[in-house]
Write a structure and sequence with these properties.
By secondary structure, the chain is of the alpha+beta class. It has four helices and 22 strands. Helix 1 runs antiparallel to helix 2 and helix 3 runs antiparallel to helix 4.
Length: 390
């Protein structure tokens, strides 16, 4: 740059000092412009060198971003899980009694209970109009009193005859006659007493009573209707007891026996605990299933006629289990994420089995000793780098 300036000045000897100064200024401006053009090139080279060094740093930053997911891990453990038999069936009344009228041709005067009412043994459920029956009862009572009077009179005569039988005052035929009259009066009294007792029963039957403790499940009875003998007026679930009638296949029935505890789930999701009472001796000819009768608690809340499913606890076996948080469901398939030595999560398809609390049985797809992501597993994808914490 210095040589350029000196040469340019020397080439202008004939100019004045002012002109020389102006020329020198022009040369300096040109030199500055040439220097300014070299700077961007240098800057561009530095940028290219820096950009060539950036890919490694970007990959490291990206890798760190991938490894930002923090998970906890565990190894599958062996545990004892219950062996269960699953079945479906209906809830039904343990015994349902039909309560009807024992008299015919009488009108229902009143009905005292409705469906769902809890009743006690002997409680009056309905009242029949009993005016006719009451009149018959009074008539039978009067006939009994008359027969009693006749019996007393005949017995007194027979006693007197027996006292003088040896005196010869009466003939043998007369004595026999008095004694026969006593026997006839006794038989008439017994007949009148039986008729009176029957009238009493008829009068009592004008009140329809509950044969046992229980719950009214149906009420066909209507006030004012004339009923016939044996006509059903109420249905009663005896003692309020209901049972679950489970249908079990023949190949599973051998694992079930009386006394086993059963978990029953109603249609509304309510869960109750029952106990196997009996097993049907034969299979249904249509379904080929065998009915298992399971007693349910009276306060179970399950209604007769509803559907329920249940599990029979038939034993326990060893199983490989993981925490339920480790199992991730995607598109209807169960997966776990196995973390390798480089802390990389590998998605693994598994087949699950029984559940026990927070533990899930792994039937296939996982081996003992492998590290499985637990907390945070639901946010992982196959190949993600993770940070493992205890």
């Amino acid at each position: 740059m210095r040589s350029v300036k000196e040469t340019s000045v020397r080439q202008l000897p004939h100019l004045s000092m002012v002109a020389k100064a102006a020329a020198l200024s022009l040369v300096l401006v040109l030199a500055a412009c040439s220097g300014g053009e070299e700077a961007p090139a240098k800057t561009s080279d530095a940028a290219s060198q820096e950009s060539s060094a950036q890919p490694g740093k970007g990959a490291q930053a990206q890798q760190k971003a991938k490894a930002a997911m923090t998970v906890s891990i565990e190894e599958p453990t062996s545990a004892k899980l219950q062996v269960q038999v699953e079945a479906n069936g209906d809830v039904a009344a343990w015994q349902e009694a039909s309560v009807g009228a024992e008299l015919s041709g009488l009108r229902l005067a009143s009905v005292n209970v409705n469906v769902g009412d809890v009743v006690r043994k002997g409680q009056v459920l309905a009242q029949l109009a009993g005016a006719t029956t009451k009149a018959e009862n009074l008539q039978s009572k009067a006939a009994l009193m008359q027969a009693k009077a006749s019996l007393d009179n005949a017995k007194a005569d027979a006693d007197r005859v027996r006292s003088i039988a040896d005196s010869g005052a009466l003939s043998a035929s007369q004595i026999a006659q008095y004694l026969t009259q006593e026997k006839v009066a006794q038989s008439q009294f017994e007949a009148a007493k039986a008729a009176y007792d029957a009238a009493q029963v008829r009068l009592g039957n004008t009140q329809v009573r509950s044969p046992d403790d229980g719950v009214i499940s149906a009420r066909p009875a209507t006030v004012g209707a004339v009923v016939g003998a044996g006509q059903e007026l109420f249905r009663l679930i005896r003692q309020g007891r209901v049972e679950w009638r489970a249908e079990v296949t023949p190949d599973e029935i051998g694992q079930i026996e009386a006394g086993q505890i059963t978990k029953v789930t109603g249609a509304d999701g309510r869960e109750v605990e029952g106990k196997v009472r009996a097993i049907a001796p034969a299979a249904d000819t249509k379904t080929r299933n065998i009915t298992v009768y399971v007693d349910l608690p009276t306060d179970s809340g399950l209604k007769a006629g509803t559907f329920a499913r249940g599990l029979f606890q038939v034993g326990e076996t060893q199983a490989l289990t993981v925490d339920s948080q480790a199992v991730v469901m995607r598109d209807g398939t169960a997966f776990v994420f196995v973390v390798n030595e480089e802390n990389q999560a590998q998605q693994r398809k598994v087949r699950t089995g029984r559940h026990s609390g927070v533990r899930v049985e792994i039937i296939d797809g996982l081996k003992p000793g492998e590290r499985v992501a637990v907390q945070g597993a639901g946010f992982l994808n196959d190949g993600d780098q993770v940070k493992v914490v205890q």
